[in-house]
Structure formats: structure tokens, C-alpha cells
Design goal:
It comes from Vitrella brassicaformis (strain CCMP3155). This is Glucose-6-phosphate 1-dehydrogenase. It is an enzyme of class 1 (oxidoreductase). The structure is a single chain. Helix 1 packs parallel to helix 2, helix 1 crosses helix 12 and helix 6 packs antiparallel against helix 13. This protein has 499 residues and is of the alpha/beta class. The longest helix is centred in the middle third of the chain and has 26 residues. It is built from 14 helices and 15 strands. It is globular and about 75 Å long. About 1% of the residues have low confidence. The termini are far apart. The strands form 2 sheets. A 9-stranded mixed sheet has the order 14-13-12-11-7-10-9-8-15, sandwiched between helices. It has a 6-stranded parallel sheet with strand order 3-2-1-4-5-6, sandwiched between helices. The structure holds 6-O-phosphono-beta-D-glucopyranose. The site of 6-O-phosphono-beta-D-glucopyranose has 4 residues, from helix 9.
Length: 499
């Protein structure tokens, strides 16, 4: 291993994503001892910054990580080999000023990497992390590939959404990018794929024969995938208004969860086998019908204290952008025919939460009268857990039947003091060349195919006699518009008690 060097080049290093996610993730991996022995991180951006200025911007994000690892080492005394201070990490970092897409700058970068970092190593790898707006992806790679590709090791490129805003724009972006980049070099991030409970879906489904027989329309009545945030757009309104909640989290994060819940067993755990199955199930989902969609936009909170969406400075006064949506889709195969897959997502709701909730059918026969349905819940956040809502006898002399849970809460059951951030996990996967948790080009295409007709209707682009979809309002901090509950109930979901 000492013969090998790895460079991380973070393009867009002075931006928000790099500051909040990329650098803290790399620093956490460093603290965990997971980065290669010989590595350097080059922050690449256009701004004229000294290294000290640059470092100053990163410091708050890194301080949070070191606070955690500092405490941990006090508890686990044997871990003194772990480097806890951002200073030891800092020695491996540098700042490079350059334009994206400039051949001169790419050549200059290459020279620097070869001379300063890689010269004494037999092998040299480069991971390019594009923390950039997607409109710059293709240009950036077009300059880097011929001029700044390592000739003595692997080259990988990490990119992040938004990958277009509908099928045609996504196809265009993909074809520009894939004209310069090979699929095997491309690591398209959907950070939900790096979350612990999302990673647990494959082991849960295919490592437990207990779930095999119930996992179909024979026993499952409906599925609900929910994403809620208890904050609004918080000054990101200018960006958000062009995107809306469906493109922001449903077409990507929620659909990824759905895919993992619904796909067939892959031939192996290898990345291409898993991604083949994901594409297969996506192909069996028809475009979402507009009559299966409820939209909402938040207004000021009921007490008048928290501003509404249109109070966000970047948002136009007549915005029809949805900050909330509930929609229903169906999978046309033998396993899932007739089962509604309900997705619900919103900003400015009553809590922060993400989960998959699988509701089973009613117990036939009525031996105990009417019982609420069994539900298998995969709680992605907070309090990562899997639980099955079941009935049992009230302990003691009573003969009452009560609802309770078989509950696997990760923090209670396992000896863990932290779960890694999704970006940390995915950066490590990329470093290991493991593409299981990255989105392949054909997968992205299918995702847009499912959502595009409905999005075009909402945006008023559909033409013909398509009727625009009403955007209901809901107060900040509420459960969203009541029409959403009506849609969910229409598709047979029955409210249960408890959590
Ligand atoms: C991002 C969206 O992809 O995911 C944000 O752009 C959203 O609007 C975020 O807040 C949610 O991620 P997490 O990890 O906080 O649930």
C-alpha cells in the first residue's frame, strides 16, 4: 500500500457542499483511519483565496467532527493512533485556484500533482469530486480527462444532483457527460443511498426468510414512503423555486428507497447485479398520473411567527412551486400489481423524519374483532430502526389484546456511538471502487421517465387539455394539506395508533 498515492481533488471547494459535506466526510474518514496512508486533498475553486482563508471557511464543519472524535478517544483509551486534530488533517490539504473547464488550469493541476505528490509512488489514483453546479460538469471533465488523468492508477469522478430537471434535459446532460466519461469512472451520488437504514434494506429483505413470503401483493396492502422536514427553504428559496419538492427529494431519494424495497433479488451483491435489478423494477412503473398527485405550499405558521414560503427573499410573489407533495405509483408486475406505492414529502411540516412504512392486509376472520393492521416500519431518520407493529396479549391477568412492536432500534441494540454520515460512507465506497450505492445512467433515465409527464403538467408544459394541478396551502408546522390524507386513504391506507 505504501507504493500507492491517492489524491482527492474537490472542485467547487469554496462552496457550500464542500464545506458542509465533502470535507467533513473526508475528515471523519481520516479520524476513523479509513483514508489511505498516502493521500492529499486539493481544494480547487475559482476564488482568489489564500490557503488560510480557505481553511477558515472549512473550520466550523471540521470542528464538529473533531469534537466528536475527541470525546470518543477519551472513552476508548486504546485509540491514541487516531489523529484527532484538524491540524494533522490540514497538513494533507492544499488550495488550487483555477477555472472549471480550462485546459491550462487542468494541465497546471496535473503537473502539480505529479511533481508534488505522486512522483515517488509507483501507483497514483485521483478522485475528482465535482461539488459544482451540473451545468459545469461536462466542461470540467472535458478539460480534466485528457490533461489531468492519472496515467498510473484509477481516476474516478463523483457528481451530485440536480441531474437535469426532466427527461430531455437529463438525457442531454448525461450524453454530454458520458461522451467524455466512462460509466465505470462515474459515481453519481444520491446521498440517501448512503444512509444506514437504506443500506440495510437489501440485508433485511434478502437475509431473512421470514420476510420472503409476505413481500408481495398477497400480504402487503400499501406502502408509504415519507420524507418530512420541520424547516422551510431558509434562504434557499431562489434555488428551490426552480426545483420544487418533487425534483428535490422524490424523483431521487424517495424513488431510490422505493426501488430497493420493490426490486427482485439480485444475482449477487456486486454493483452491476444490484443496479440491473433496480433498473428492471423501475421499468415496470408507469408514468405517475396527475390525478394521483396532491400538491401544497407552506404559508406562515398559525401563530404568525414563522414565515411562509413566499416570504423567502428568493421566491417570486406568484410562485406555484410545491413545497409538499403526495403521489401514488404502481408497479406493473406479478409481485406488486394493485399495491399502491404512496410517496409523501414536504418542507415546513410538524417534524423531521424519513421512513418506509409497509402496511399488511387485515387479519381475516375477526377472531379478535377489528384490529389495526400490522406494519413494518423502516425508520431512516431520526432514531434509525426497524419495527413491526404487532398484536399480543396484555401481560398479566387480563385477556386484552394490545398493539405492540418487535423493535430493532440500532442505538439500543448495537454498541455504536455514531452512525457515519451518508457522504462519509459514499466517499469510502468510491475510494474502494464500490458502485453499489451510486446511480447508473440508465437508472437515472428511468427515474425521470416516471416523473416527467406529471412534472410537465404541473409546470404547464404538457399542452393539450392537461389541467393544471391545484397547489393547496398549509401552515408552517402542520401535517400538510388535508387533501393529502384523503388521497392516502383513498388508496386504502388505514391510520394505525402508536408510532
Ligand atoms: C437534499 C435536498 O437532497 O436532501 C434538501 O436538496 C433536503 O432540500 C436534503 O433538505 C435532505 O437530506 P437529509 O439527509 O437531511 O435528510
Amino acid at each position: 500500500e505504501s507504493e500507492e498515492h491517492t489524491t482527492f481533488v474537490v472542485l467547487g471547494a469554496s462552496g457550500d457542499l464542500a464545506k458542509k459535506k465533502t470535507y467533513p466526510a473526508l475528515f471523519s474518514l481520516f479520524c476513523e483511519g479509513r483514508l489511505p496512508r498516502n493521500f492529499t486533498i486539493v481544494g480547487y475553486a475559482r476564488s482568489d483565496l489564500s490557503f488560510d482563508d480557505f481553511w477558515e471557511r472549512l473550520s466550523p464543519g471540521l470542528a464538529k467532527v473533531s469534537a466528536f472524535f475527541g470525546n470518543r478517544s477519551a472513552r476508548h483509551r486504546g485509540m491514541s493512533h487516531i489523529c484527532l486534530s484538524p491540524d494533522t488533517f490540514r497538513e494533507r490539504c492544499s488550495y488550487f485556484r483555477g477555472q472549471y473547464g480550462s485546459p491550462d488550469d487542468a494541465a497546471r493541476l496535473d503537473k502539480l500533482l505529479q511533481k508534488e505528490h505522486e512522483a515517488k509512488f509507483a501507483r497514483a489514483n485521483r478522485m475528482y469530486y465535482l461539488a459544482l453546479p451540473p451545468s459545469l460538469f461536462a466542461d470540467a471533465v472535458r478539460a480534466l480527462k485528457p490533461l489531468a488523468w492519472s496515467q498510473k492508477g484509477w481516476n474516478r469522478v463523483v457528481i451530485e444532483k440536480p441531474f437535469g430537471h426532466d427527461l430531455p434535459s437529463s438525457d442531454k446532460l448525461a450524453s454530454e457527460l458520458m461522451a467524455v466519461l466512462e460509466e465505470k469512472e462515474t459515481y453519481r451520488i444520491d446521498h440517501y443511498l448512503g444512509k444506514e437504514m437504506v443500506l440495510d434494506l437489501i440485508p433485511l429483505r434478502f437475509g431473512n426468510v421470514a420476510f420472503t413470503p409476505i413481500w408481495s401483493n398477497h400480504y402487503i396492502d400499501s406502502l408509504r414512503i415519507t420524507f418530512k422536514e420541520n424547516i422551510g427553504t431558509e434562504g434557499r428559496g431562489g434555488y428551490f423555486d426552480k426545483v420544487g419538492i418533487i425534483r428535490d427529494v422524490m424523483q431521487n431519494h424517495l424513488l431510490q428507497m422505493l426501488t430497493l424495497v420493490a426490486m427482485e433479488r439480485p444475482a449477487s451483491l456486486l454493483d452491476e447485479d444490484i443496479r440491473d435489478e433496480k433498473v428492471k423494477v423501475l421499468k415496470q412503473i408507469g408514468p405517475i398520473k396527475t390525478e394521483h398527485v396532491v400538491l401544497g405550499q407552506y404559508t406562515r405558521s398559525e401563530d404568525g411567527k414563522t414565515p411562509g414560503y413566499k416570504d423567502d427573499p428568493g421566491v417570486p410573489a406568484d410562485s406555484q412551486c410545491p413545497t409538499f407533495a403526495t403521489l401514488v405509483m404502481f408497479i406493473n408486475n406479478e409481485r406488486w400489481a394493485g399495491v399502491p406505492f404512496i410517496m409523501k414529502a414536504g418542507k415546513a411540516l410538524e417534524e423531521r423524519m424519513a421512513e418506509v412504512r409497509i402496511q399488511l392486509k387485515d387479519v381475516p376472520g375477526g377472531l379478535f374483532g377489528e384490529l389495526a393492521r400490522n406494519e413494518l416500519v423502516i425508520k431512516v431518520q431520526p432514531n434509525e430502526s426497524v419495527y413491526l407493529k404487532i398484536y399480543g396479549k396484555q401481560p398479566g391477568l387480563s385477556n386484552e389484546v394490545v398493539q405492540t412492536e418487535l423493535d430493532l432500534s440500532l442505538h439500543d441494540r448495537f454498541d455504536i456511538d455514531r452512525l457515519p454520515d451518508a457522504y462519509e460512507r459514499l466517499s469510502l465506497d468510491c475510494l474502494n471502487g464500490d458502485k453499489r450505492n451510486f446511480v447508473r445512467t440508465d437508472e437515472l433515465r428511468e427515474a425521470w421517465r416516471i416523473f416527467t409527464p406529471m412534472l410537465h403538467t404541473i409546470d404547464g408544459l404538457a399542452g393539450g387539455d392537461a389541467t393544471p394541478v391545484t397547489v393547496h396551502t398549509y401552515p408552517f408546522g402542520s401535517r400538510g394539506p388535508p387533501d393529502s390524507d384523503a388521497l392516502v386513504q383513498h388508496f386504502g391506507y388505514k391510520q394505525t395508533t402508536g408510532y
